[in-house]
DNA sequence: GTGAAAGCGCTAACAC
DNA sequence: GTGTTAGCGCTTTCAC
């Protein structure tokens, strides 16, 4: 059995209150006592029992993180960044994968596990604004992404419309006029809110440059996997719709699209430009390297953790909403300016 | 404040012992009482306090997982699979990123967080067999990978030597004779044990087919990032060493290599075949698609969780060691058989 | 079938 | 500066 405070106290010949003081870095402990206690701690290999501490304090220093899956693209990198930021702030992260299922997302928000953590970071894809009320409890939560809107919950998102519009206008600036967009909301698919906004940004970009929008150029994102990028391009090609650029709503879709374009004998960017969204590392190593819109993922990780910890510390402070900055990253999958 | 067992008992008009019985599905509770209690639970939205339960039970239903990073390749997919398997077994995973640093790996094994979990899954890269003793405590731990060997700790690994040898012989079977290998142990780099074994497999593969091994064809894996694949190819090319195939110790290295070969104007697989190791999803969408050795990652996730839970349940059962099966996945980055 | 009571290991309010 | 004590919410003997 592991050593307890009492064991340490006994060995050091002090009261166990004193040991607690030492462990918690309390101020008024004589150097001699401290030394004795520390020696005893080292000798017994004492480590505090977190369950007991949590029970007493009502805080666990655990944060919940609920994302669709760690295995692919955006969410893996986001989780990685969030875990690092949380660690630097003294928190450990308990990761759940919702697989974009409504049931699992509800469970993350309302389920029993919620009890173990001091707060939750969730990027809901299946839940929508209709479910907003379930977030309106006193338990700290920060929403990532834009599927759920509520002026009663802390929220951090990308500027999806503006960023996608900028991407679209960038392609137009390159001389493209027939720009296909992969990322349409699919009722069966995930990420509905994001789809809607990025689709809107795409259309606004066209409109801003006076280009007629052609519904045949707007493709579903399916479940946002590589394969969906493949099938979008395939259907575009088989429908015989002319296009000179592809703007995909995520880098993963873009890489699927790039793959299929090349498999069909097209040259990127000579025949078709490809633009992604997310700035995943992988995009730096495709051939050609992938031009992309960086929606601001790294900043989201920072801000989200920060927001959540603020909320934990002051539950009554005003609800926060933050949008992060985006930027365009030009690599080789889009053609040079004419 | 959240409702407690006592609150529920008061509302239901029973003793709080009875409520506990209902919550834990105890057998002898009359249907009427059960119904009353359940109604009270629902009305108050009662959820058990896990800290209290853990304190009492001495178990948290939390598992620790320590991997270098979630953001890239193998470990992101592995973590994803492990979290799913653990969830199906009723456990939640607390993820830590060690960034392959010795200090962080030690912290994962010995640090305070260890106390919060019922067991630890760790894939050490910086720790070595010299550190084996730190694992030999009574706390459940399962080692993934092969940096640390000890007959006193549960362990699950790939058949690295055999798998790499098979990959090498596959390339030879394709007609290749000048096969470069990227993945040499770099004292500064990570994954030393894996490097050594995969290097050994490569050399054995050559030897088995009577091919002389040329040290100039063996390249360092650096820190196992995409960029290290790039630099390996770059140094190969600038040294003017002839080669007709590249076998990279991971898919990420292989994708970096593929990228650089193409950037240098070489055609894969016409001029050079490229073979990876790991079977990451991304490899299905490169151009050309990436041939690879599947070391058995999915099986590792299953077995590791299973081993750890067995160990938690019976701390004194014999130490287990398992090697998983590998397979070769032929795609388009290796040339067709002559 | 249900109730009372002990105690898991810790922190903090209160004495001294 | 250090010691005593209550109690966080729960599970689990032990009675009844």
UniProtKB/TrEMBL annotation, chains A, B:
- Which CDD domains would you find in this protein's record? HTH_LacI, PBP1_LacI_sugar_binding-like
Which GO MF terms does the UniProt record name?
DNA binding
Q: Where is the HTH lacI-type domain?
A: 3-57
Keywords in alphabetical order: DNA-binding, Transcription, Transcription regulation
Q: Where are the transmembrane segments?
A: none
State the Pfam families in the record.
LacI, Peripla_BP_3
Q: Which SMART domains match?
A: HTH_LACI (SM00354)
Keyword flag DNA-binding: yes
For whether the record's keyword set contains Ion transport, the answer is no
Spell out the PANTHER family in the cross-references. HTH-TYPE TRANSCRIPTIONAL REGULATOR GALS, LACI-RELATED TRANSCRIPTIONAL REPRESSOR
Q: What is this protein called?
A: LacI family DNA-binding transcriptional regulator
Please report the organism this UniProt entry assigns to the protein.
Gryllotalpicola koreensis
């Amino acid at each position: 059995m592991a050593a307890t405070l009492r064991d340490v106290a006994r060995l050091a010949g002090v009261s166990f209150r004193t040991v607690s003081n030492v462990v918690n870095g309390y101020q008024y402990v004589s150097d001699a006592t401290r030394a004795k206690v520390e020696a005893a701690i080292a000798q017994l290999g004492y480590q505090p029992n977190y369950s007991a501490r949590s029970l007493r304090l009502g805080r666990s220093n655990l944060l919940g993180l609920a994302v669709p899956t760690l295995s692919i693209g955006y969410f893996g990198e986001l989780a990685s960044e969030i875990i690092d930021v949380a660690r630097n702030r003294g928190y450990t992260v308990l990761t759940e994968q919702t697989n974009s299922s409504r049931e699992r997302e509800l469970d993350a928000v309302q389920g029993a596990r919620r009890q173990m953590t001091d707060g939750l970071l969730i990027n809901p894809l299946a839940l929508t604004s209709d479910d907003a009320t379930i977030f309106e409890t006193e338990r700290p939560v920060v929403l990532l992404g834009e599927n759920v809107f509520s002026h009663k919950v802390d929220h951090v998102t990308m500027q999806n419309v503006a960023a996608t519009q900028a991407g679209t206008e960038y392609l137009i600036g390159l001389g493209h006029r027939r720009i296909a967009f992969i990322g349409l909301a699919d009722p069966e698919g995930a990420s509905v809110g994001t789809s809607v906004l990025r689709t809107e940004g795409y259309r606004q970009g066209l409109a801003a440059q006076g280009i007629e929008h052609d519904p045949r150029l707007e493709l579903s994102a399916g479940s946002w996997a590589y394969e969906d990028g493949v099938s979008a391009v395939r259907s575009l090609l088989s429908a015989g719709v002319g296009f000179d650029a592809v703007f995909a709503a995520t880098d993963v879709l873009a890489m699927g699209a790039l793959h299929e374009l090349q498999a069909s004998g097209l040259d990127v960017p000579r025949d078709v430009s490809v633009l992604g969204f997310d700035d995943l590392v992988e995009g730096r190593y495709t051939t050609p390297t992938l031009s992309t819109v960086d929606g601001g993922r790294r900043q989201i990780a920072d801000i989200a953790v920060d927001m959540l910890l603020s909320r934990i510390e002051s539950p009554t402070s005003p609800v926060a909403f933050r949008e992060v900055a985006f930027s365009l990253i030009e690599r080789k999958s889009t053609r040079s300016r004419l």
